[in-house]
Every structure is written in structure tokens, then in C-alpha cells.
Amino acid sequence: MLRVEGLFTEYPNEQGEIVRAAQDVTFTVPEGKLFTLLGPSGCGKTTSLRMLAGYNTPTSGTIRIHGVDSTRLPPEKRGLGMVFQSYALFPHLNTYQNVAFGLERKKVGKDEIRRRVAEILAIVSLTGMEKRAPREMSGGQQQRVALARALVNRPRALLLDEPLGALDLKLRQQMQVELKRIQREVGITFVYVTHDQGEALTMSDRIAVMNAGVIEQLGTPRQIYERPSTRFVAGFIGTSNLVEGHVDRVDGGFALLPYTSQDRVIVPVSEATRSGDKLEVSIRPEKIDLHRGVPPASATGGSVLSGVVTEVVYHGTSTNYTVSTSAGADFTVFDQNASSADDLADRGDRVFLTWAPQHSYPIGV
Predict the structure, then answer these.
(1) What is the structure's pLDDT at 19?
(2) What is the DSSP string of 72-102?
(3) When you count CB atoms within 10 A of the terminal residue's CB, does the N or C end of the chain come out lower?
């Protein structure tokens, strides 16, 4: 559906310095998928989206829509819809009038307008609210009106720039599920911009993680979370424990990184890894088991690190521990509260951390 190749853009800031907002941004969006540009503020994701929409012109690179070079086409010639964080509803028009506005400008027949507006309002669960003014609606309802107004024009793809940013947390989470449902139901390609990692993981078919104008990793939510390819991605997506070590030996596709006579990290590695190589390893907190005493033999076949609990935070469904480990790194551990409170560790307790070899992932290898 969309193919972006080598987008590059730069401009002078207020100090006269050249800012590179996007550098060699390349990605493909298949038809009917939800593709997310994810990253912190200032990383270039909104600039990339605006170039895709035609509001910004790239310094170099190409944008193809259904195979047609659209890099220099004006926005109205691209057939793309746009939804903003601010909703941008007309305050003097009711729901029906807001949604019908674009069709009326295109001189679509009144019967066709009524049919299409009714159809799209049903999809976004706003049937019966046709006469409500924006001020009479909640933030979530206003966002649905903005979405309906864009979708009723049947765009080739819909571009969404932080569309849920103005909503409170609970409503935001509800709208994430609703937006994904609507996207599947209408079957239109979505390109979605957000800085919220949870939102991207919840909604996306594919994610491009951006940092300083560069795409650091592109993949499915599971690939991005389970197998981060850079230190930035590992730290930005959720919580990740990072530890460094030197390879003692490689056996059967796994490298051993020793720290004491008992403490070690075992990592799946490529054939190119050799003894003496330095590795940086990412381990997700929920993959780790915490033991108050010496772990059982069944738990010691993989990685084992000893340490001292320095912080305990109770979250209801889980208890989060910070452990100062023998590897020289502080680890975060998410321990599900499936047992009694008597089994919880406390600050100052000596503990052991264990996890399976496949849950260690080497960064940049």
C-alpha cells in the first residue's frame, strides 16, 4: 500500500543550526495493516508522517502510494486521511454535520451522504448522537467523531498523529482496543504515530522504533519486545535489564558469561561468537524467577545470578523488586503475586535470580 524509501529532511533551527529530522527513513506498509511509528518526542516520527501526508516536503527520498511516486503530490491528491490529537472538530456543527462536511464539499448526493454517515457512525458506535455538539460529548466521543469524519471519505490510508494523547489513561486504553477493532472492520491501512510503548504494542501489526531521525528497529510487536536489536530499543520498549560480560566459552549455540564460580548468564549466540568476545545482554523482568533461598536444581540449568534486594514495590498483581546482582548491574524483577505475602522478599534479603537461556538476548549481535 505504502512504500517509503530513503526519506531525508533537514532544516535550520532558531539558532541557525541544521537539524536532521529524518535520516534514510525506509519502510513498507502492507494493505489493511496498522503500522506504527514509535519513539520519544523529537525523534522524527511526526515529521515522517507529515511528509507522507504531503504537508512537509522531504529533502530527498521517495513516497509511493500503490506503486505511484507521490513524493511531490499535494496532500489533496494523495487520497489519504488524517486524524490529529486536537480532534479539530467544527464547534458550531453537530456530529452529523461534522462527519458529512467532507462529502458535502465533494458534492456527493444527499441520499449517499446520509447512507455513508449512518454507516460510519454505526462502526464507531455513535449511532443516536447525530445531533450532539462537540461540547456535549466526552473526549473519547469527540475522537470517534474525528475518526468517522476521516473514514467516511474512504481514504486509501488513514494517518493518525497521537490521536489518543489528550485522553485520560483509562479512556485511552479503551480507545486503543476500539481503534484496532474499527481498523479491522473497515479494512483501511492505518499509519499511527505515538510515543506510548504500550499503545504501540497493543494496537500494531508492525512497529518502526525511531530515535534521532533514524529507524532503529522494524518488526512485529513481539519481535520488538522480545528481541530488541539496540540498547535504545531495549530501554525504550518496556523495562529491560542490561548486563555486560565476556564470553568464557561457546557450546551448542550458547555462550557462557561467568561472574563468580556459581553465577553466570547463558546466551543464545550466532556461530560468529568466540571466547573473549564482549556481549551486552537484555533480559525482560517478567522472564526472571526470584528465589529467597538457594534455587532448586531444576532452576539452575540456565542463567543464575545472586544478589541483594534493594527495593520492593507492591503493585497488587505483582511485586517489583530491584536487586543489586553479582554481575555488577541492578536488575528489575516482576514477580507475580500467586503465593502468600509470607513468601515475599524484603529489602536486604539475599536472593537468587534464574531464567531460561532463551530469555537472554544479545544486543547488536
Answers:
(1) 84
(2) TS-GGGTTEEEE-TT----TTS-HHHHHHHH
(3) C
